[in-house]
Specification:
This protein is an alpha/beta fold. Helix content is 41%, strand content 15%. It contains 14 helices and 12 strands.
Length: 407
């Protein structure tokens, strides 16, 4: 199972989840209010990035996806911090020095306080605000980057923030907390309920503004960096079914709602698409599968179906995130092999996949779960911040060095 020449391999991180020391965003405020676990210094990646990139290089990685922290770069509305831009410029140079291509995401869930407290993406002018930020980054860093992704997983943000109420701004509809991801959210709810009528207004307003924000950011980036590859990162649940006709219809409707409904409105402003894959749902399926530490079924081969769902748009794809929470590292090596095999099968069927980023390079702050879910190729001791490479990381290294699946 050999991959195309030039295929890029690596892992991903996100600023708030690993950097530490970010206190002027909506998630930090929520932690101070006791609504989510505190993040604190996290992995201290903000200061230890060079050593972390040395680890990535030692594991054969030739690409790395990371996010910029909007709250650092624009701490006050319309006022940008040149020191933080310079920090990220140095981070990019460190990646390149290690022979690793940098792929960056403009926004990975956390919002600057000035923006969230004034309504966030409920604001009518939120697309213009986001586009201003995107243009600034493209002007300052565009020449150093291989590509820019605008928004990470917009449907996840909207669902967990405006339906389940587990994430900021914690708006949820009645009787919905049982669908929350974490036990804490299922127990406490974490936010006041709103009426279904109000939810409809909030949810679809934000949904529309995410579309507008991406499209406006695309144009803004292109206005200053015309050759920049601009993408969006879509969390893609692979819905499929058995041969039962009703179940086939259920899968088709679910894929439309979760994937196509959003992508249809942004695809004309995408040069490529990042695909995040963690879950599947097979209607009519009676097979009992093992579960990850997140409680999700172990089904890494479903990434093939997820990639094929997005290939309908005929834009180059890259796996921007895919991985497994596995505290003891018992299943990760096999999971990675099966996941990579699924990507290979999609390529054999004509899907243009350019790269694969495992989630995550490091153990990290896993949002409403805090630090107890371990996705990393590298284990973090949060007391000492010691890094320890897991055995599964070396299996991934063998795949990278062979540019294909190895026995």
């Amino acid at each position: 199972m050999t991959f195309p020449k030039g295929f890029y391999w690596g892992a991903a991180t996100a600023s708030y989840q690993v950097e530490g020391g970010i206190e002027n965003c909506d998630w930090a405020k929520a932690a101070r209010e006791g609504r989510v676990p505190p993040c604190g210094r996290a992995c201290d990646h903000y200061n230890r990035y060079e050593a972390d990139f040395d680890i990535a290089k030692s594991l054969g990685h030739n690409a790395h996806r990371f996010s910029l922290e909007w709250a650092r770069i624009e701490p006050e509305e319309g006022k940008f911090d040149e020191r933080e831009i310079e920090h990220y410029r140095v981070v990019i140079k460190a990646l390149k020095k290690s022979g690793i291509k940098p792929y960056t995401t403009l926004w990975h869930f956390t919002l600057p306080l000035w923006f969230s407290e004034s309504g966030g993406f409920e604001r009518k002018d939120s697309p213009e605000i986001f586009a201003r930020y995107a243009k600034y980054v493209a002007e300052k860093l565009g020449s150093d980057l291989e590509g820019i992704s605008t928004i990470n997983e917009p449907m996840v943000v909207n669902s967990l923030g405006y339906l389940v109420g587990e994430w900021p701004p914690f708006k949820r509809v009645p009787h919905i907390k049982k669908f929350a991801l974490s036990d804490r959210a299922r127990r406490d709810g974490l936010g006041p309920t709103t009426s279904w009528k109000n939810w409809f207004v909030f949810f679809f307003k934000v949904d529309k503004n995410f579309v507008r924000a991406h499209n406006a950011a695309y144009d803004a980036i292109k206005s200053v960096a015309p050759s920049m590859e601009v993408s969006i990162v879509k969390h893609t649940v692979y819905y499929h079914s058995n041969e039962n006709l009703i179940n086939k219809v259920k899968a088709k409707v679910a894929n439309w709602y979760w994937t196509y409904r959003f992508m249809n409105r942004v695809i004309d402003k995408c040069d490529s698409v990042g695909v995040n894959y963690y879950q599947h749902k097979k209607f009519g399926d009676k097979e009992i599968r093992p579960k990850t530490d997140m409680g999700w079924e172990v089904y890494p081969e479903g990434i093939e179906g997820a990639l094929k769902l997005l290939w309908r748009y005929k834009k180059p794809l890259f796996v921007s995130e895919a991985g497994v929470a596995d505290h003891d590292d018992d299943m990760r090596a096999d999971y990675i092999k099966r996941q990579v095999a699924g990507v290979w099968k999609a390529i054999q069927d004509g899907v243009d996949v350019r790269g694969h980023m495992y989630w995550s390079l490091l153990d990290n702050y896993e949002w409403a779960f805090g630090f107890n879910k371990r996705f990393g190729l590298v284990e973090i001791d949060y007391d000492t911040l010691e890094r320890k490479i897991r055995p599964s990381a070396y299996v991934y290294k063998q795949i990278i060095e062979a540019n294909g699946i190895v026995d």
